[in-house]
Amino acid sequence: MAIKTYEEMNELEIDILKEIGSIGGGNAATALSSILGAKVNMALPGVEILGFNEALDHLGDPEELVAAIFVEMSGELSGIMLFVLTKEFSDEIMFRMLGKTNTDFLALEEIDSSALIEIGNIVISSYITAMSSLTGVDVELSVPQLAVNMLGGIMSVPIAMMGQHSDRIMMITGEFKIDGKALNSNMLLLPDVESLNVLMKKLGVE
Amino acid sequence: MEKKISVGIADMKITRQEGTLITYALGSCIGISFYDPMIKLGALLHIMLPEKGRGNDSNVFKFADSGIQETLRKLGAYGAVKKRLVCKIAGGAKMFEMKGGGGLGNIGERNAQNVKRVLMAEGLRVSGEDTGANYARTMLLDVATGKVYVRSAGKPERML
Q: Which of A41, B17, B56, B78 has a CA positioned 20 to 30 A from the CA of residue B103?
């Protein structure tokens, strides 16, 4: 049965989304691992259906500086994919990819930004590739965009996009660990309600 | 300790005499401060979208038009006089350089335009503004003095 709001999802459907998150995230972790030359794991994904302010609280301090790589999904699914990483995660990438330490997060050099975009691009596309082959949905991805700024400001973009017709947003979340260290990153998949119906239909859940 | 009242996304708070109204990390959203200096009454509204449109959305503070109207109605009930109100706005950034430009790509800019349009239609003038660009802003209204401050990452706090 088609749903009209996120809250109508039942436990089975939520479990399926967790599974999608886990397969997408696992694939993304493998890709990240081969670029960074380190062991990368993803913690168990979560499925959160939250009000705007709860969603922000869930992710952290709204004024915290983070980097985010943003990709819009279109095709059979629409929504947003966002890879949010803290300074410590970004530093780890800078160090492992470029051998750099102490980069100025607010004044990244072009090569630093390119490295972050590249990481975001690889992580997001491996996530989506795994999801597409599992579910058989065709998803097109926009060119990835990077922003380094306050978490709240960054999240205002998906919240405004998803919040147009809903007072809640749904996030499938997942956190990476590099060599066992949790460095606070979050892989967020934010589908719209219609996309959830498409996914469930493709997977034969009625 | 000074009273600090936090205003969430799609939210509005009113207070008088003293205390600070604060809304954190406005990205494409807009913070709108209203202040009646005669009775030291202040409101801070945080909207995220330009127009309510046809929907029957119950959350009036989500949209510029319905949010401003409801804030003015409440301020009126608290004794504010419209022609004394000082309004300032912040936010409306373009956090990501999105392709195509249309639709939600420039939501921040559309928010800012519509907030100004609605305020003007209500006969209110914007006397301080910090909008646009590509960074988030935290906005504060000190209700004891009516002063409005904006702070952003890596920039000194400024008074609007």
A: B56
